[in-house]
Write a structure and sequence with these properties.
The structure holds two protein chains of two kinds. In chain A, α5 (106-123) packs across α8 (162-174) and α9 runs parallel beside α10 (212-222). Chain A is of the alpha/beta class. Chain A is elongated and about 55 Å long. Chain A is 46% helix and 19% strand. By secondary structure, chain B is mostly helical. Chain B is globular. Chain B starts with 11 loop residues before the first helix and ends in a 7-residue tail after the last helix.
Amino acid sequence: MRVLIVDDNVSMRDLLTALLSSQGYQVVAALEEGNGVMDAVRKLAPDIVCLDYQLPGRDGLDILREINSAHPKIDVLFITASEDPGIEAKAADAGAAGFLRKPFGQKQVIDELKQVVETRRRASPESQPEAAVQSPVPQPVAEKTAKTPGKQPTAVIADDNSSIRLLLKGLLTELGVHVVGQAANGEEAIRAATNHQPTVLFLDVNMPILGGLDALPRIVEASPQTAVVMVTGDTSRTIVQQAAGLGARGYVVKPVRPAYIEKFLKQLFNA
Amino acid sequence: MTLMIDFPFPGAAPWVDHFKTIEVPVLRHTVHQLDELRATAETINTSKLATIIAHDPLMTLRLFQTMQARRSSRQSADITTIERSLVMIGTENFYSSIENPPIVEQQLKGYPKAMLGLLKVIARSRVAAQWARDWALLRQNVSFDEIAMAALLHDLVEILMWCFAPNLAIQARERQTSEPGRRSSQIQQEVFGASLNDIAVELITHWSLPPLLCSLLKPADGEVANVQNVKLAVDLARHSANGWNDSALPDDYRAIEALLHIGHSHLLERIGAPDEQVQAARQAEAEGDPLAS
């Protein structure tokens, strides 16, 4: 697994390099500033970027958005010392696969990277045959729990971030859910719900043109049988209550984790 | 802000290399106190600043790091007190060196047990420094400030471990509590991968800390009066932190009384022991009890 480290603190770069190397990761480079990160990503093709937020040259959030848009298969572990309580939600919405707030310990880095790697492994169809040898792939939730035997549940994914759509599609497919449509904004989500009448629709809260909360009542109206699940990096009570009031059946917190999606679908299909 | 160390380094050298790269955090209270005086930096009395700095071993260490960084190549004499260091650096330069320092409470906010452990060591170091100074004055030793500072920084590496390897520091403390028969250096070797004294020797030299601190770690210097002055103050602070009935205290008392040539009740009074213990010592002395001290 190839890792690129970007942090302006020399001690952090050195320690992360030593730690990740000792854990079997291949550290392809350790950069100290934001300028040049995209060039390094293109040249070195890392699988994971450990990216600090506050960097000289260019801020990490900006870089994160560009990596996600240009290289959706690269996972970004977002690192920050910022006290801004909204930064975690912003990073999650921008597609961070993992998040660490400084100060953090070596064990936390290892655990978070394991989660990121595991999520990517479960969501990547090409890695599944290999994964099946290493660890048993869970039996599809849909087969186990669908109310109508033989009929595969369907899903629409609406998120403006292509990396998150890719990840969710992989996870849902692995769990036996047929992804029939994808949308990058609220208007597209309404059209996809109307056309496909999916069993479940994963709806991002923050999207351009029409946000998730604005699209929600129209989706419920267009496809009343669809269980709408909000996908958000912001877990504030206001958003959760508002979504529930508008007819959402639940919410998934970003960064998306396979275990949570699996548990959630089990509950949804058993309800 | 750096990564917290959860796994021991293999030996003292990597710890030393690591501590050379970190920025030392300071107590929030120290920063607030220094901020209040910032407006008068040009005219302020350095002894006022020194009193605030001496209350925080971490800020004291930062001061010495700053002095080391600004040290002229022509300067040969060691500067061994906080006040003299401030005079050498200049108050404005000192303030420039502490713009937005990392705050230890912020650094350890995810480690409340470690924060508590750190505050206990700092409190103990302050008490040790206070006693060491008092005894040095009683001995009419002109190096009383240096002696006090050596006591303040005696547990420097333990303090750094609480700040930068909080989980390991907690583990070491728990092992020391559950295995009272083991030597602390053995436990340190197992938990940190190195003895704290080995790390300290290197760092004291690297940061040009007062040479008395190095003498404290050399067994050959154990009988030097100033070394004893510091060591006894540190031991007494460590043992009395467990309560005034700690089993190690009688030995400490005997050694301190011998160093200072004072009686038992007088010592208990000077160190602020509980009234009933002072009264009991006085009564025993009045009755000529040979076991009174």
